[in-house]
Design a protein that fits this description.
By secondary structure, this protein is α/β, with parallel strands linked by helices. It is about 30% helix and about 20% strand. The chain has a single domain, classed as DHBP synthase (Alpha-Beta Complex), CATH 3.90.870. The protein contains six helices and ten strands; from the N terminus they run αββαβαβαββαβαβββ. Strands 1, 2, 3, 4, 5, 6, 7, 8, 9 and 10 form a ten-stranded mixed sheet that branches. The longest helix has 11 residues. It is globular, with a radius of gyration of 15 Å.
Length: about 190
Amino acid sequence: MDYKEVLEYLKNGGIIAFKTDTVMGLGVNGLDNEAVKRLFVLKGRSFNKPLYLLSHSFNQIYEYASHISDVALDIMEKYFPGAVTVVLLSQGKLFTLPDEPGKTIGVRIPNYPDLLDFLAWIKLPLLNTSANISGKPPIEKKSEVIATFKDAVRYVEFPHDIEMSGVPSTVVDLTLGRPVIIRKGSENKL
């Protein structure tokens, strides 16, 4: 699929599916509240469980997060790119929840060069979640994503394939001054 077409699709409220370094992902333009709501409904996701920013750079993280502590910066420098999602205070610019720009924002820089290139190229904040129905295991194949979500999503193919870990990222909350692990995932050295 042509990236220009994908960008227009995202700008018009579309939901995309794609491979990451951990599990298959679903993503939407984080500036589009209606697209965020559609993604929550599509997955059957609880409206109080925020999406996170799949980022291409520290600069993009600084654009949407605030009050990044030295501890947070140290962890991000150590584990990015990689399978760690850090939760920071939000500037309130993105709809991480339906109808609400949440007070916090999870951010992750994936370890997949093609995905990073795509994220940098689209210049949109892509909010992300795993490609599955809430409560079910993450989907592992493109064919399963298409069978599950049919024409509700567009699958984005990257030039180079990658073997996914099959395990979602570790999530660590850094809003309280000290790291608090919310979910143990792919990166378990934290």
